[in-house]
Design a protein that fits this description.
The complex is a heterodimer. Chain A is an alpha+beta fold. Chain A has 25 helices and 23 strands. Chain A has 4 domains: 61 residues, no CATH class; 205 residues, no CATH class; 303 residues, no CATH class; 195 residues, no CATH class. In chain A, helix 5 packs antiparallel against helix 10 and helix 10 packs antiparallel against helix 15. The chains are: A alpha+beta, B mainly alpha. The interface between A and B is medium-sized, with 38 and 31 residues.
């Protein structure tokens, strides 16, 4: 504000006497009156007039406020520069942008660091947001997805709240429900595609005709299954191709529709091609009709069921409708006793709960990172603005309004923001490509992730908002009330400095707290990952390879016997190889996360009727399966070639089953009820094997029941081979063996056991590495913040430090002084960060394994790491302080 | 919005605003009133009155940049709102009704 030549003393007195809210306005009006009077009556008269007004003005204004309330303008919507025309305003903005650009060029180091800081925060956000958007937020590729639901059977009396459907129950529910416009079931199998060189194994999704109709799928060519094509007697040999198979095997040729393809030795007519997409549309290479048979049973739970709610039907209504159907069935059929249903929305179809959780944790992490970047930038701008206080005071003195000063500051920081966003987007493109390259395999839609329009828009918006907010703080600190002081004292101006230093310290605390939280999160994941790799798997991995062999699908018992014989022969030939120590086959490979299961019970120990039936995974195995995987037989014996499935029922059980049913007793020779609650076969326990974590490393060792593979027509077989050296080297040998034994049988899924273990934790590794990388960047930014604040304050205190040293302060005491000053906000940040991490870690609990979310070593380690790093960041400016030359420092004053 | 009648001083300030082209800063109003009333007018009184008028919705204000050549910083500029103009017109009609058509008092010379 300019005094306009008004008597200085009176003006100063008035300024003291007037209330804040009206001070500027009042002084302006008095100045206006003064200037008019100078023009009319001369300066002396004007001065007299002005002095007379001082007490009157102060008293009247105060009185008016006392009696009638505030005098602040009631309507401040008028833009301060309302008298500027649009084009004038544009000109000032352009000028400000030019000015900002010049300022950036003048201070390249500052600009580069500021832009990079922003780019890191923005790039990480754009990348992770594009993943979240594609994986979690993009709607399902079906019309009206909110009407789609998944339906499960339940048997609360057996403790199952979600189980697959049995065939017969599904068909009855389809016929009897009143809630769905379409309902369908899907189950999975495989079939060989005859190809020139190597037969290829295709996955088949068997679906009822209601399935694709419920999804509302429109085929890209041909048609989907019509009503009635799942009835007995309908044409069996028809197939719908998945989009993937259509493009890879048939070159996207539309004329394939209506032609025959040879599958499993038989001709199938292609009737249509599905659009691309996930879920369901990629559930199989081929879709074939799932038929309703006359003998469909209610005992084996095999079908996944989805439905489309009829318009206007709520989930709750559908639930009670289906439960009505279920209780009707339960009353009618003994196998359906206790049947109920569970209905779930289609939300979870694309991403599992844990993936959802992991992505939101990552999204929060990049949010934190952006916050840290903003804080850093605000800190840098504040530091610079303190240095440029004289400049702004000068502009104010020359008549710039607060609005103009703010506009200039925003133009500068918006420039930084736009540049940061541009580079950040470049970074994001790179990160997204990297993510796709490191696809852990179980993140759906990851291949579709891209930086598209909305991500671009949100990124730019975020960049502008961030930079404007960070630019605002220093601009608002223009010293309007003490222009003269600011002009005179420049950077050393006391005005606002104490507050600025406090603000910058607080910002450092925020940075430290945020990065500590990120580091704790990353630390917990790293420790979980270590724990999961260290967990006692129960089986050996070294020099062991797994592969699937798909024999021709058996059509009858004789085929099944032939298949079983082929399997035995292949095993025998493998064992005969000099480089093979052991070989075996199993119905389901390791760590698949899913598998076959059954309820079990001890025949000699009837369990209370209401107890939940324990659930075991079961596997068919050849003799030597345990030895091949290095699993001990704890009691009894392994299977031999004489043991044949179900003739009679003989089983090997895992140690946990023995401990549960016959704790402290010998389990061998006992009778075990298999498929408790279903067909209830009674089997003799012939052996007890060591426990394995063979479903999921993060689970407890599974309850496992093993039955002889011998005699079973199960397809495909997973072979496990333990070799003396590099295990995969035997694969070509296996191929040539198979070419002799069964030329049409493909070999697939070749993996060393180490690879299988690695793949089973790939998603964890993915999340862990990402979070660790983010935490690392956050740590760097926070340290840069600590360093920046401290080195700035040291440079400002050179004189003081020089004085202290001149007066005899030792170097170590100066060091202590500076470091302790720098560490104060760090320690505040550490405390806040630990508290925040304690609170926030609860959202990660489900992602952890083997550590609790309150894991003390993680917290302590992270706090120690941050402390050491921060002390180092403080040491550099402190060392500079000790180098202060007393004479130079004093001369600068 | 207050339905009370205008105070005499407020009335004067509004009329001065009208005479100044409907738009003015505080200081010219003070001079205008001094010219019209031939008395010293307190800028503080005008200052308070303008803000009360604004609070009652009869005037609005904006802070503006100094125009080129004006020097210094701009100060607050006031203008009457539609409500303010209506209020003025209403009080004029009230006065006219009260005065009637005759000339009940002799104009002091």
């Amino acid at each position: 504000m300019t005094s306009g030549g008004t008597p200085r003393f009176s003006t100063a007195v008035l300024r003291v006497l007037l209330p804040d809210a009206v001070r500027d306005d009042a002084l302006d009006e008095l100045r206006d009156g003064y200037l008019l009077r100078v023009a009319r009556h001369g300066r002396a008269a004007a001065n007299r007039w002005y002095r007379r007004q001082v007490p009157a003005f102060a008293i009247r204004v105060r009185l008016a406020i006392l009696t009638g309330g505030s005098l602040a303008p009631s309507s401040e919507p008028h833009v301060p520069e309302s008298s500027l025309s649009g084009s004038e305003r544009m000109t000032t903005i352009l000028a400000d942008l030019r000015y900002g650009a010049r300022a950036m060029v003048r201070n390249p180091a500052f600009s580069v660091i500021a832009v990079l800081t922003l780019a890191l925060g923005i790039g990480a956000n754009a990348a992770i947001f594009s993943v979240v958007r594609t994986v979690l937020l993009r709607p399902l590729p079906f019309p009206e997805p909110d009407r789609l639901v998944q339906v499960w059977e339940s048997r609360l009396d057996r403790g199952w709240n979600q189980s697959s459907f049995t065939h017969a129950n599904f068909w009855d529910v389809q016929d009897m429900n009143r809630s769905f416009s379409a309902i369908g079931a899907i189950t999975f199998g495989s079939i060989n595609l005859a190809a020139r060189d190597n037969p290829e194994l295709l996955s088949v999704a068997y679906v009822t005709t209601g399935f694709l109709r419920a999804l509302g799928v429109t085929p890209v060519a041909g048609r989907v299954f019509a009503d009635g094509e799942d009835r007995v007697g309908a044409d069996q040999r028809i197939a719908v191709l998945s989009h993937r198979l259509w493009t890879t095997q048939f070159g996207g040729d539309r004329s394939i529709v209506g032609r025959d393809v040879t599958l499993g030795g038989q001709a199938y007519r292609v009737i249509g091609v599905l659009p691309p997409g996930t879920p369901w549309l990629d559930a199989g290479d081929l879709f074939m009709p799932l038929r309703r048979g006359p003998n469909d049973d209610r005992g084996s739970f095999e079908l996944t069921v989805i439905g489309r709610l009829a318009r206007g039907v709520t989930i709750a209504a559908a639930r009670s409708d289906l439960n009505r159907v279920a209780s009707q069935l339960a009353g009618q059929y003994p196998e359906a006793k206790g049947m109920g249903v569970t209905i779930q929305l289609s939300d979870g179809w694309v991403a599992s709960d844990s993936l959802r959780r992991a992505l939101w944790v990552l999204m929060s992490a990049v949010g934190f990172l952006l916050l840290i970047a903003c804080v850093n930038l605000a800190n840098m701008l504040l530091a610079r603005s303190t240095g440029r206080i004289r400049e702004r005071a000068m502009r104010a003195a020359l008549g710039a309004t607060r609005g103009r000063v703010v506009q200039t500051a925003i133009a500068e920081s918006a420039l930084l923001g736009v540049l940061g966003a541009a580079i950040g987007l470049g970074l994001a493109f790179g990160v997204v490509r990297l993510l796709r390259a490191f696809d852990p395999g179980d993140i759906p839609r990851l291949a579709d992730v891209s930086i598209d329009g909305p991500v671009l828009a949100i990124t730019l918006g975020a960049a502008l908002i961030t930079s404007i907010i960070t630019g605002l703080a220093p601009a608002l600190r223009t010293p309007y009330h003490d222009i003269v002081a600011a002009l005179r004292e420049g950077e050393r101006s006391v005005v606002g400095n104490r507050r600025a230093v406090g603000l910058r310290g607080a910002l450092v605390s925020v940075e430290v707290a945020l990065s500590l939280m990120l580091l704790v999160g990353a630390g917990l994941l790293v420790r979980s990952f270590g724990a999961i790799l260290d967990v006692d798997r129960g089986f050996e991995t070294e020099n062991r390879v797994l592969f699937n062999v798909t024999f021709p699908n058996p059509q009858n018992d004789a085929d099944a016997q032939r298949l079983s014989a082929l399997r035995t022969q292949l095993q025998a030939r493998l064992e005969a190889l000099p480089q093979v120590k052991d070989a075996a086959a199993v119905s389901i490979g390791l760590l698949r996360g899913t598998g076959t299961g059954m309820g079990f019970a001890a025949q000699d120990k009837p369990s209370p009727a209401n107890d939940a039936v324990p659930w075991a995974g079961w596997r068919l195995i050849t003799p030597n399966y345990f030895r091949t995987l290095g699993v001990p037989i704890l009691a009894g014996r392994d299977f031999n070639t004489e043991d044949i499935i179900s003739k009679p029922w003989r089983v090997v059980i895992s140690h946990r089953i023995a401990e549960r049913l016959w704790p402290g007793e010998n389990a061998v020779g006992r009778q075990l009820i298999l498929w408790k609650g279903q067909q209830e076969s009674v089997a003799e326990v012939i052996g007890v094997a060591g426990d394995m974590r063979d479903w999921d490393l993060a689970d407890l060792p599974s309850y496992s029941v093993y039955m002889p593979f011998n005699g079973a027509g199960w397809n495909p077989s997973t072979f496990v081979v333990h070799t003396t050296a590099a295990a995969t080297a035997i694969v070509p040998i296996v191929r040539s063996m198979l070419a002799e034994l069964s030329p049409s049988s493909p070999i697939s899924n070749v993996r060393t056991v180490d690879q299988v273990v690695g793949e089973s934790v790939a998603a964890r590794r993915f999340t862990m590495l990402l979070l660790a990388a983010l935490a690392g960047v956050a740590l760097l930014l926070a340290l840069a913040g600590v360093y920046g604040v401290l080195s700035y304050s040291v440079s400002r205190r050179k004189t003081e430090i020089g004085m202290r040293m001149a007066l005899g302060a030792s170097r170590s005491s100066v060091l202590r002084l500076v470091v302790s000053q720098g560490m104060r906000p760090v320690i505040v940040g550490l405390i806040v960060g630990v508290l925040g991490a304690l609170g926030l870690s609860r959202y990660m609990a489900s992602l952890l394994f083997g550590v609790t979310r309150l894991d003390a070593p993680t917290y302590a380690g992270v706090a120690a790491l941050l402390t050491v790093a921060a002390v180092l960041a403080c040491y550099l400016p402190a060392r500079d302080a000790m180098k202060v030359d007393v004479l130079t420092a004093l001369r600068e004053e | 919005m207050s339905r009370t009648a205008l105070g005499e001083f407020e009335h004067h300030v509004m009329l001065a605003l009208v005479r100044l082209g409907g738009r003015s800063r505080g200081a010219p109003i003070v001079l205008e009133l001094e010219t019209a009333t031939r008395r010293a007018v307190s800028p503080a009184a005008v200052f308070v009155a303008l803000r009360r008028l604004e609070q009652r919705g009869y005037a609005r204000s904006s802070k503006r940049e100094a125009r080129p050549g004006e020097g210094g910083r701009g100060s607050r500029e006031f203008q009457l709102t539609a409500a303010g103009k209506a209020k003025l017109a209403e009080s004029r009609r009230t006065f006219e009704r009260l005065w009637g058509t005759g000339d009940p008092v002799a104009e002091p010379s």
